[in-house]
Write a structure and sequence with these properties.
There is one protein chain. This protein has about 90 residues and is an alpha/beta fold. The protein has a single domain, classed as Barnase, Chain D (2-Layer Sandwich), CATH 3.30.370.
Length: about 90
């Protein structure tokens, strides 16, 4: 069964805020390392059937363009590697 998660990036200004929001909105384990490598590991281990929708991504791009770009690339790799994992970004 698919689980859909909507994550609003509008007010995200730092990496720490991003990972705090992810920890709040996704069912991540307590040991989540709050970085992209840790997120990739969890998505590829537990993300089957997850549909993650990031919206207001343009707002975050303005403040964290390099990091959001890395998040997008990591998400693409994780989705390729994990059956049933969908991750999309909307402006």
């Amino acid at each position: 069964m698919e689980k859909v998660f909507y994550i609003d990036l509008r007010s995200i200004a730092t990496k720490e805020e991003l990972h705090g929001l992810l920890a709040k909105e996704l069912p991540l384990p307590d040991y989540y390392g709050r970085n992209l490598d840790a997120l990739y590991d969890i998505l590829t281990e537990c993300g089957e059937g997850w549909n993650i929708i990031f919206y207001n991504a343009a707002s975050a791009d303005c403040r964290l363009s390099d990091y959001i770009g890395k998040l997008r690339k990591m998400a693409q790799r994780a989705a390729k590697e994990t059956d049933g994992l969908k991750i999309r970004f909307f402006q």
